[in-house]
UniProtKB/TrEMBL annotation:
Domain ATP synthase alpha subunit C-terminal: 376-473
Organism of derivation: Dyella thiooxydans
Taxonomy of the source species: Bacteria, Pseudomonadati, Pseudomonadota, Gammaproteobacteria, Lysobacterales
Protein name: ATP synthase subunit alpha
Family named by the database record: Belongs to the ATPase alpha/beta chains family.
PROSITE patterns registered for this protein in UniProt: ATPASE_ALPHA_BETA
Known role: Produces ATP from ADP in the presence of a proton gradient across the membrane. The alpha chain is a regulatory subunit.
Amino acid sequence: MPTDTPDATAGDWLRRSRDVVARARLGVRSVGLGHVVRIADGIAIVSGLAQARMHELLRFQHDHMGFVLSLDEDTLAAVLLDDDGSVEAGSEVLGTGEVLRVPVGPGLLGRVLDPLGRPLDRDEPVAAADHLPIERPAPAIIERDLVSEPVATGVLVIDAMFPIGRGQRELLIGDRATGKTSLAVDAMINQKHSDMVCVYVSVGQRAHAVQQVIEAVRAHGAPERTIFVVASASASAGLQWVAPFAGFSIAEYFRDRGQHALIVIDDLTKHAATHRELALLTHQPAGREAYPGDVFYLHARMLERAAKLSSARGGGSLTALPIAQTEAGNLAAYIPTNLISITDGQIVFDTSLFAADQRPAVDVGLSVSRVGGKAQPPVLREVAGQLRLQYSQFLELELFTRFGNLSDTRVKAQIARGRAIRALLTQPRFAAQQLPEQLAQLAALDDGVLDDQPADLIAELRRQLPARLAEGQPIPIGDALDPSTRNALVKRVRELVAGIAAAKGAQA
Ligand code: ATP
Ligand code: MG
């Protein structure tokens, strides 16, 4: 008889299990042997594991893994991490005495992994420096420092109006297909100019969408400093539930070593739905809004792990960009309000702005960044200080003046300025702007160089500006924008605008 029949494998497995139990009796490890009472929908009710702990890793028949999600008096509910239907009622379960852990370390950089750290990109196992539990306590207040260093996203509307600081949690929220993922990916890509490590966690996304993110980072960013943790839509509910926690532990490895990390979670709405599904299946007590199991506490303790650490703790940081989806722009729904109250601000994406070709489709009125202002480079703050006010006033004026004609010159000037701001804030994907470009454009805007210029000219300016700023004598950017630097920057923009206008005129 061939040895690899299911029976032989099961026999092997049992022998190995008993071996471990025997070792445990010798004091090697505290484990136990239990039985599956019933199993359905990827949830196994297990009896006989009285010593089991929350989140303890369980080994089922045929090397299937699961973890403890809830504990009852005589039984426990375990979530199977990969379920192919071979685990049945009556089959034996081995407690491992260990909570669910993920491999962490620099060996993960550049890799695509599932939430347990198993490679999805190639057949080579990850070289782990260590293993960390998926749930770890957030740093205490005394271990933290104020958010004071910027995370440059390269996206002008964010860096100028809603700056993000290292250690901040900024929610990206909006309806379906409004550019949430794109903005997060642009922010990750721009870290090729920084020392930040990026962790992208995909929860319940289509495999094709995840592939596009990975390819975008590989083509434009710093893939060697990025880790992808993927539990796509087809992964088991257990894996999807674990993914963001695993991502945090993977990112914390860097935070705790004085390095800086950025974690994107795409997205927490799907994670909340998975949590709801598992909570219902394990009969957890009903919570608010038909969400059994306290999803607010779950997400709050997860996002609290993003922090800027004090210098005594090495001064590292972990910045989180969780993504959430809304239905018909409803920010007042249960999960959106939860997440808005947990984070330090939100970037709101709007369907109608997206439809009107404003990309990124950021709603300037509803978006806010609560702690990042202190981390914004002072030079940028100098030129961007008035931007949000000017733009908001323009949006109101635009509504008012839509039907009347404009006679007041002051109103005309405000509208011209507003249109220029709108053109500046429209930015294609993969077109990150570095600080000198951002400064040059905003200083030129302030000096009126861009008023009354058509949007396509401003788009062309954005394309040509990096090369123009790199030409000739480099313009040094210090901590403050001294008048000569400012003039030099504006002069180059002015020349470029004149050049583009002349070229357009010659073409016409
Ligand atoms: P989903 O809800 O499906 O996850 P999403 O909100 O994450 O969607 P994206 O997938 O990022 O949205 O973007 C939707 C579409 O908009 C994509 O085709 C993307 O290429 C396009 N897009 C996003 N941002 C920009 C931009 N700045 N310029 C041009 N196109 C953009
Ligand atoms: Mg998306």
